[in-house]
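Deliverable D5.2: sample structural annotation.
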Amino acid sequence: MTMESHVRVEYSVLPGRRAPSALVHLGDPHSLKPVIWSPERFVSFNEAIDDIAAHNVESVVLLGSAQSFGAGADISALAGVQTREEALALGVQGWRTFRRLTELDAPSFALITGYALGGALELALFADYRIARSDTRAIGLPEVRLGLVPGWGGIHQLARVAGPRVAYDVAVRDARRGASMTADEAKRLGVVDELIPAADWAEAWPVVVAERLSTHDAGRRSRTLGDREYAAQLESVHRDFERSRPTVSSAPAAAVRRLDAARLETLDEAETATTALFAELLLSDAGKASLYAYGLSRSRSSLPADMKTAVTGNEVRPIRSAAVIGAGLMASQLATLLVRFGRIPVVLTDLDDERAARGRQLVLDQLDAEASAGELARADADQLGALVSSSGNLDAIAGADFVIEAVFEDLQVKKEALAAAEKYVTVDAIMATNTSSLSISDMADALQHPERFIGFHIFNPVQTVPLVEIIRGRQSDGVTMATVLALADTVKRKAVVSADTPGFVVNRVLARLYDEVLRAIDDGADPLVVDHAIDFLGLPMSPLRLLDFVGPAIQLHVNETMHRAYPERFTTPVWLTKVVADGQRAVLNRDKTLTAEAARFLPARKSGRDNAVFADGIAGAILDALADEVGLMLAEGVVERAEDIDKALILGANFPWALGGVTPYLDSRGVSERQPDSRLRTQTAIPTTTGVIR
C-alpha cells in the first residue's frame, strides 16, 4: 500500500473533554492532491475503523487536507470496468466501507475543507455531523453528469439528512449543469451543520467538535422528515423534473427513482438497489460516453506538432502583469479572470479616466459578489481588488507582460487600438485579442511584432464557461503559443488550439447548425417544429432559445461572417435579418412560443407537411451538415484532432457528456460514413444512446 493511499489514525483528547477521540487522516494532510478512493484506500480506511473499534473513543473525526476533503473514485478506474461483477464490487466496496461509521457507538464528524465532491461527500453524509471551513467552494454529487448515480449512498443519505428536494437539487439539477454548493449554501440547505471561519479553522474545529459532543443526541442518526413533508417535497421534485429539458442519459430519472425509495428503505435495501443501478449505468452507452467526455474536459492542450520541436519549457515567458485595452463588460470580465485565478496585477485602459474607472469598478463588484456568496474569502477579495487599476492614458500599460484588447468588434477599430498599444509595450510582451470572429492574422498585420500576437477567445459568461480558444495567426511563434497555453492553465481555463479561420471552432460548428435551422425557417417550415427537431440530442437549450441567449444580432453577425467566408455552404438568413433590422432582441416567449413580433416576418407557411416526418428530415439535415463541417475543419487543419472539436463543444457549448462528443456521436449514428473525410471517424468510436430518456 502506497503512502498516498494510506489512512492514518491518531488518538487525541479534545479541549475540555476527558476521553480520547479518533482523528482519521484520510490522506496526506500536506498534499495538494485530492483523496481519491482507490481499492487500497478502502482497505486502509477499514483497517483504521477496525483499530478505532478496539479503542474506547468518544468521537471519530474525519480530516482531509488543507486543500480538500476529497473526491470520489479514480475516473480512469471507472472507465476500465468491463463487467457487471466488477461494477457491482466497486459499488459494494464503497457502501460497506462508508456505512461502517453508522455502526460505531461514537458519533462521527466530517471536517470539510476546500471541496468535497462525489465519494467524499458520500462519506461525509454517513457521518453524524458535517462541519465546513467557510472558504469551501465546491460541495456536491456530480455523478449524474457522468451518466451515473452516486454509487456509495449519496442520494439515500442526502435525502434523509436534508430532504428529497435538496437531494434532487444537488444530485440532479446541479450535477446536470456542472454546479456545486459553497459552504454557505450547504449550511443554508442543511447539508452542513456548522461553518468555521477559514482564518480560525485550525484552532477552532477541536473546540467546535467538543461542544457538539456535549450536546450530542444519539437519535440523530435516524432523523428524517415526516411522511407528509417528504411526500410534499417529492411532489415538487417530480414537477421540476418533468419541466426540465430531456436528456439522452437515463441517470437523472434513475436518481429521482432513488429519491422516491429513500424514505422507507433500510440501508441494506438501499445498498442493493443503488449498487445494481450504478453497475447498469456505468456499463451503459451513455455512461461510457460520459466518462470519455469527462476525460476530454480535464485534458490539457499542448503545442501544435509543428511547434513542439522548436520550443522548450524554459522559453515560456512569465506573466507577472497584464493590461486590458477597453473597460466594458467583457474587458472587466477578462480582468477579473486574470486577477481572480492568476493573481496577476491588471490595469484597464479606455478613452478616458471615467470609463476606465467604471471598468475597474465592475471587477471590484464581481469580486465583492463572490465574497458575499461565500465563493471567496472577504480578505482575499480585498487583496485581489488591490491588484486592479485603471487609466485613461494608454501609457499605463507599459511594463505589462500580457496585453489583451476587448474593444468593439470591428477589425479596423481593433487594428488601430493594437497598433497604438504596441508603442508602449516591451519587445517581449505578448499581445492578444479576444475577438470571437475576426481574423487574427489581419490584426497582426498592423503590428511591428506579429509573431508575439495571438487570439485568446474567452467565452461569455466568462465566470462559468471553462473554454478558451487559442487562435494562432500566420506569424504567431511557438514561444507565444506556449506562454498563452500556460496562462490558460493559470487562470483555470481549458484551451483548444485553433487555426485562424472564420468562426474558429465552436462558432463555426454552431453556425453550421444554425444555418440549417434558419434555412428551414426561411423555406416556410414551422419554427417550433424546427426548434425541437433535435431535442433527441439533449442540448441544454433549443436552437431558438440559445439564439435568444446569444442575441439575434450577434447570431446574424456570425452567420453573415460565415456566408462571406463560405458562400457555398452558409446562407444569409432572411427571417433573422428582418428580425434584427426591426430591433427585436428575442424570438421566443417565456412559454417557448414564437413572439408576435418575430412571427410577423415569417415567410408563407408551406402546407401539407407532416410535422413528425419533417422534424426527422431537418434533424437528418443538421447531423449531415455537422458531419460535413467537422470533416472540412479536420481536412483544413483547423484543429489537429477530432477530439479537439469534441472538447471545444463540450466545454464551450455544453454538448451533453452522455453523447461523448460530437464526433463519436456522429460515428455512432452512421452519419460519419456518409462523409468523404475519414479523419472525422475517431479511432475508437464511443457508443452512445440515440433517443431521449426521461
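Annotation notes: Confidence is low (pLDDT under 50) at residues 682-694. The radius of gyration is 27 Å.
The annotation will be released with the project's public dataset once the embargo ends.
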